[in-house]
Amino acid sequence: MALEQVWLVLNGKAAGDEAMREAVGTLRGQGHPLQVRVTWEHGDASRYVDEAIAHGAQAVVAAGGDGTVSEVAAALAQRDGPADRLPALAVLPLGTANDLATAAELPRAPLDALRALDQYPAVPVDLLRVEANGQARWCVNLASGGFGTEVTVETAEGLKSMLGGLAYVITGIAKLGRIDTVQARFEGPGFSWNGSFIALGIGNGRQAGGGQVLCPDARLDDGLLDLTIVPELSGEVKATLGALVGGGKEAALERIAVRAQMRSLHIEGDDPLTLNLDGEPLQSRRFDISCVPGRIRMHLPAGCPLLA
Question: Do 174 and 47 fall within a single domain?
Fold first, then answer.
């Protein structure tokens, strides 16, 4: 792919990243007039996607964290027309958690990530469409709820900058003495669950919150959303907590989690509940979530774990 047909949407917080600047300078020095746009406020990514489409761009690179990836993906998904008539999405991870890029095994070095556009094909991937409060939002990686959402929302930006994904763990430990459960009803094709939970994952991707794997079997291209519910810690559930020490977090989660795959899901709570969509909280009493197959294309490596 000729890099003059690539537009790079760079999160303003990463504009001073030296490796990023060197990568762009290297490619431009080799004769590739890579187009760079820096986000400053909400809506910038959408405007830059419009600009890229108007100029016939073949790919838009989301350079930042999971929030930047989600914003660019949503901007593409909102456009009219099928995925093959829109620029493909590429990811250059520059955020704190980079959950989607990590699970997809994408290069972290900016120069490697940009050069990989020539090596990684653009393949159709699904998106989650979340309807709540009379509006629709898009989610490319994972929607989470309960304790995990509180940890992600409450983790301070300064702590994230200093400690990366470890910041989420520290914040979570600080909250262990005051975990509040959430009561909700879940309905989907062939699935029904009603009860209190402490954590929830609705995956297109697998992990959130700096490496917390909630939906280990999720795929970006299977046409299904993966649901994981971690029930409240009572009765038999409390007896499994020893696995947190003996077998690791994943072992404990496997023993207590409720899991299912489906094309659509309705969630209704007695009180308003919060879903964290790729890092952005959304509060409502009712959510209607559907998996939209092949809504955009994404540059991913051959053998990517997130592809079926």
Answer: no
Q: Which of 51, 131, 268, 280 is catalytic?
A: 280
Overall domain count for the chain: 2
Rounded to an integer, what distance in angstroms lies between the CA atom of residue 202 and that of residue 218?
A: 9
* Coil, strand or helix at 6: strand
- Of 100, 125, 150, which residue is a domain's last? 125
> Residue 99 pLDDT more than 60?
yes
Q: How many C-beta atoms surround the C-beta of residue 144 within 10 A?
A: 30
Check whether residue 279 and residue 156 sit in a common domain. Answer: yes
Decide if 4 is catalytic. no
* Structural tokens at position 60: 């838009």
Q: What is the dihedral of CA 203, 263, 285, 182, to 10 degrees?
A: -50
What is residue 32's DSSP assignment?
-
| 122 membership: H or E segment, kind and range | strand 122-132
- Helices 66-77/44-54 angle, 10° precision: 50
> How confident is the model over 192-225, as pLDDT tens digits?
999 998 888 999 999 887 777 889 999 999 999 9
Answer for the pair 306, 123: CB distance below 8 angstroms, yes or no.
no
Q: What is the pLDDT of residues 265-299, one digit of tens each?
A: 999 998 999 999 998 899 999 999 999 999 999 99
Examine residue 91 and state whether it is found in any structural domain, yes or no: yes
Q: Per the confidence metrics, is the pTM higher than 0.70?
A: yes
* C-alpha span between 176 and 274 (Å, rounded): 19
Q: How many CA atoms lie within 13 A of 30 on its CB side?
A: 13
H/E element holding 251?
helix 248-256
**Upper half-sphere CA count for residue 45 (Cβ side, 13 Å):** 23
